[in-house]
Amino acid sequence: MNNNQIDYLFMAAKLNLDKLDLQIIHEMMENAGISYADLGKKFFVSGGTIHVRIKKLEELGIVKGTKLNVDLKQMGYDVIAFIGIFLEKSSLYDSVARELQKIPEIVRLNYTTGNYSMFAEIVCKDINQLRFVLHDELQKIKGIERTETFISLEESFSRNVQVYNPL
Fold first, then answer.
1. Angle at the Cα of 81 from the Cα atoms of 163 and 85, rounded to 5 degrees
2. Is the distance from CB of 9 to CB of 163 less than 8 angstroms?
């Protein structure tokens, strides 16, 4: 067992997770659409047991729902951009984050170190929509000093973190 696996097991013990919980997490990270009945068959327990375990993981805040992975380009969303946001003062982070959350095109926001106070990912149907968000939405938010925008030309890959496989 390597150090990452030991750390993972230590964290699991601290959260009171057993091998079945870890197996469920690992399997559902690979395929969140798998049925509880199929998971139960795979791990030799009932679908009801899987349901109870998922509820426990949700209550602990470990599992935060499931998401459908959609090809945004196929749906007509042709522009993905990243916005580095400079704040007037770092103490304005919470209020600016609340305002940014109101903009539906912003799909991810992080508080960062380095040149930017915040870094946002934005998804738009076209450049006109991106321009609208940048000039008409972001410019209205008090506390944003300036922004720097990076347009993504291609997403090479996107994946989950590989957690220790308890199988």
1. 90
2. no
Dump pLDDT digits (tens) for 128-137.
Answer: 999 999 999 9
> How far apart, in Å, are the Cα atoms of 37 and each of 43, 50, 51, 156?
10, 8, 9, 34
Answer for the pair 129, 72: CB distance below 8 angstroms, yes or no: no
Grouping H, G, I as helix, E, B as strand and the rest as coil, residue 120 is strand
Whole-angstrom CA distances from 161 to 12, 29, 103, 142 are: 16, 9, 27, 35
Q: Which two tokens stand for residue 146?
A: 């300036």
Global pTM value: 0.76
Joined together, the tokens standing for residue 9 give 């097991």
Can you tell me which residue has the tokens 């919470």? 94
User: Considering Cα of 45, then 163, then 27, then 77, what sign does the dihedral take?
Assistant: positive
* Degrees to nearest 5, angle at CA 23 with 21 and 28: 95
- For residues 5-19, average pLDDT: 67
- Name the amino acid, one letter, at 19: K
